[in-house]
Design goal:
Elements lengths: L14 E8 L4 E10 L2 E8 L31 H13 L3 E8 L2 E8 L36 H8 L4 E4 L5 E5 L3 E7 L5 E9 L1 H10 L12 E7 L3 E2 L4 E2 L2 E6 L21
Parallel strand pairs: 1-3
Antiparallel strand pairs: 2-3, 4-5, 6-7, 7-8, 8-9, 9-10, 10-13, 11-12
Length: about 270
């Protein structure tokens, strides 16, 4: 759609692209996004479009198999009864488990024994137990979600942040990539790589843009440059994105805000 209200920024009339997608409700306005200066993309959901085989979403249905109960007195499933019988056979046996810690593997032997001389229901409880009867626990305390280790692992690239609303959502993996994606109901994912992190190209970008350099005083954010994203047909170049990590004093210590701005086409 063309010939909209004149734009003060580029002195051209505004224009919009309307996209109709398959949606469960009869007619719903889903989102509007400014793809470039005074150019917009509007997404509208329309249920009648789902009747066409080209637009009908793919759904995977899992069959449900029903069987008559063999023993009406016991409502437990047969698989559960088999599992309970198997557990009884192992109650008096030793169990050996394999585990992995870091980059090394090993094994630990667990011996299952009945509880002895700790508590018997037939024995009366003391009103004032002696302090020396309490044994210190070796269990590590539960770490909160704001554990510094979680933030450290995010900065190592082991965790990613997800945000956005509407049709497109965003995935930010620190030191790796920034991705724009959409997930269908059937599990299919359409994604656009906005940028990948390359330390050499980032340092070159900082050199050519000295205003982006970190400052010890006055500045509340750090800028990182992600390049070599998917090819953009409108600009004829690969996508790139600037990621700003800002200091946020408001909210809880675990709150994170993520949003995307597109000041120019595919940038």
């Amino acid at each position: 759609m063309y010939d909209g209200t004149s734009c003060d920024l580029n002195k051209l009339p505004r224009q919009s692209r309307i996209r109709f997608i398959c949606y469960e409700s009869q007619l719903k306005f889903i989102s509007v996004q400014e793809t470039s200066t005074c150019e917009y993309e509007v997404i509208i959901g329309f249920s009648s479009l789902c009747q066409h085989p080209y637009f009908k979403p793919k759904e995977n249905f899992l069959p449900i198999q029903c069987h008559p109960a063999v023993h009406k007195d016991d409502p437990k499933p047969q698989a559960l009864l088999a599992l309970e019988d198997e557990n009884k056979q192992w109650m008096n046996k030793n169990v050996k488990l394999d585990f992995f810690f870091g980059k090394q593997s090993g094994s630990v032997e667990l011996v299952i024994k009945p509880v002895e001389d700790e508590f018997h229901p037939s024995q009366p409880l003391e009103k004032n137990p002696r302090p020396d009867l309490w044994k210190p626990s070796r269990r590590e305390p539960i770490r909160p979600l704001t554990d510094p280790d979680i933030a450290e692992r995010f900065l190592m690239g082991e965790y990613c942040l997800y945000g956005g609303s509407g049709w497109w959502r965003y995935e930010f993996c620190y030191g790796k990539s920034v991705t724009q994606y959409h997930e269908e109901k059937g599990g299919a994912r359409v994604e656009i790589i906005l940028g990948n992190f390359d330390i050499d190209k980032h340092l070159n970008w900082i050199t050519t843009h000295p205003g982006k350099k970190p400052r010890k005083v006055g500045r509340k954010f750090v800028s990182h440059f992600y390049t070599d994203g998917d090819f953009c047909e409108d600009s004829g170049t690969k996508r790139h994105v600037e990621v700003k990590l800002k200091c946020k004093k408001t909210g809880s210590s675990s709150s994170v805000t993520i949003y995307l701005l597109e000041p120019a086409t595919c940038e």
